[in-house]
Amino acid sequence: MPICIKDFDWTQTSEKISLSLDLRKTSPKNVDIVYTNSYLKVSFPPYIFEAFLSNLIEAEKSIAQITNGNIEFALHKTVPEQEWKELCLKLDKKRSQELREAAILEIQQQQQGRDKQKKEEKNNRERFAVSKQIEADDISREERKKIIAKQKEDFLKEPNIAPLLKGE
């Protein structure tokens, strides 16, 4: 059973929320961070920090950075200048579970979107590489044809070959 972390520091500016958590001497490679526009979870076994944010953030612009046994978040507000009264919502177990499941679903959809985009980018790179290779092969083939035609022409122009071809 994970140990829930309730001890954290947070401040806000007009543009962002700064959040700091103590990693309790956990190695950074053992830290798992997941966040959406309204949910934040940091897992570092046997500890877990989970927050259902009281307002929305821009997850794409927000960052997390691990330094000196702490994890520092810079969460960009969706509505700048909005004053947050509290960082986390106080929810009962049922509502927490509903929001957690919704957040997990959102994370899965985001991951599927990223995976699809990566796959498309990879396919585009492969198509581009194949088209460039075909282009290079076409140029090489044309150059070989020109060389063969030139060699054939030079061969036929040689004086001691011409009588052999006429049958003399």
From TrEMBL:
Highest rank taxon of the organism: Eukaryota
One Pfam family hit: CS
GO terms for biological process, alphabetical: cilium movement; inner dynein arm assembly; outer dynein arm assembly
Matches recorded under InterPro entries: CS_dom, Dynein_assembly_factor_4, HSP20-like_chaperone
Residues covered by the CS domain: 3-88
Protein's name according to its UniProt entry: CS domain-containing protein
